[in-house]
Amino acid sequence: MNPALNKLQPYPFERLRALLAGAQPPAHLSHIAMYIGEPRHPSPPLVVDALTKNMEGLGSYPLTAGIPQLREAIANWLTHRFKLPAGSVSPETMVLPVNGTREALFAFVQAVTDPSKQPLLVMPNPFYQIYEGAALLAGAEPYFMPNEAEDSALPDLESVPADVWKRCQILFLCSPSNPTGAVASIEYLQRALELAERYDFVIASDECYSEIYFDEANPPAGLLQAAAAAGNTSYERCIVFHSLSKRSSVPGLRSGFVAGDAKLLKPFLLYRTYHGSAMPPPAQFASIAAWNDEAHVLENRNLYRQKFAAALPILREVMPVEMPEASFYLWPRVDNDERFTRELFEQQNIKVLPGSYIARPTPSGNPGSDRVRISLVANVPECIEAASRIREFVKNRK
Fold this sequence. Notes:
Strand 6 (202-206), helix 8 and strand 7 (238-243) form a beta-alpha-beta unit. The protein is globular and about 60 Å long. The longest helix is centred in the C-terminal third of the chain and has 21 residues, at 295-315. By secondary structure, it is α/β, with parallel strands linked by helices. The termini are far apart. Helix 2 packs antiparallel against helix 11 and helix 12 (295-315) runs parallel beside helix 14. The protein is 40% helix and 12% strand.
C-alpha cells in the first residue's frame, strides 16, 4: 500500500458519523441535513432535457479533452462572466472539462507537484480537505496560512514567511470561501499573483461558489480576471476550477472545468489521459446547456436570498450570525462545536458540521474550533423550520 495513505485524516463526514453514533433524535421531528454542501434545488429542465436527448452518446468512448462545443461554451462563459479580453481564453489549449472540482483539484496536484524538491502546498485554514489529501499523496507537505484576525475570513498572505514561499509549489485559494463565504478582492488576488511571480509557484483558485452571491451589481472576482487586469492575459501560473454543482444545482452530474495557463493544462491533459476520467458525452451536452444559460442561475441565487432572508432574523435572536458575501453557508460561533452538533441532533434532528473538522490546529489554535458550518441547501420551508428549531435549542441551553 502507498504509505502516504496513512497520513490522511478521516473525512469530515466520517468524523461526524462517529460523533453522532448512538445518538437518538426525536422521532416526531423530521430530519433536516444542514451539514453538507449539496444543493437540493430542482435540476434545471434545460439541463435534464439536454442530458436525455443525447443518451446515444453512451455508445462511444469520450475524449478526455471533451468535445469542442463544450470547451467553446466554457471559454465563452469565462470571457463574459469575468470580462476577460476577447480571445484570451483558447478553447483548444486553456480549457479542460472535468468530472467535478474534487477530482480535478486532486488530480492537478498529482500532475504538477515535484516531490523531489521538498514541496510545500500552501492553503487556507479552514479549508476543503481535498487540498490537504492531494498534497500528502503527491509527496508534499501542507502549510496552513495564518488567519490571526478575529473575524477575518481570508487568510493573511503577508504573514506567510519568505522561506515558505520559496518552497511553495501550489497556493490554494478558495473564493468565495468555504466555509466563511468571504470574497477575495481583485487587489487580494493580484497580490497573490505578485508572490507567485516572485517565488515561482502556481495558484490553484477554487471558484466553485462564484455564482452563489447576493449583490447582482458586484459578482465575485476571479483569478483570471485579476491576472488580465494586471496585464497577464496568458494567465501564467493561473489555474481556476469551476463546477456546475453549485451554480446549476446538479451535483450528481459531476461536471466542471479547469482553465488557465496553457503550459500547465498541457501536462495536466496528459496526466488525465492516463487517469481515464473523461466526461460521458450526455453529461457534456447537458453541461453546454448549463454554461450557455444564466436565467436558471439567477433563479438559483434568488432561492438562496429567500432562505437567508427568512432564516437570519430567526437565528439572530439567539446567536451571532451574519449574511455571507457569497456561498450558502453560515459560520457562527458556538460554545463547543462538537457538543453543540451532537446535542442539536439529539434534541432537534438537525445535522450541522463542527468547524474544527474542516480546519487544522495551529500555534494559535484551531480556527474552526467553536464554530459550526450550517448549509442552507434545503428548500425554503425546511430552512425556516431548521432555523426555528435551532433557535429553540439555543434558548433551552441557556
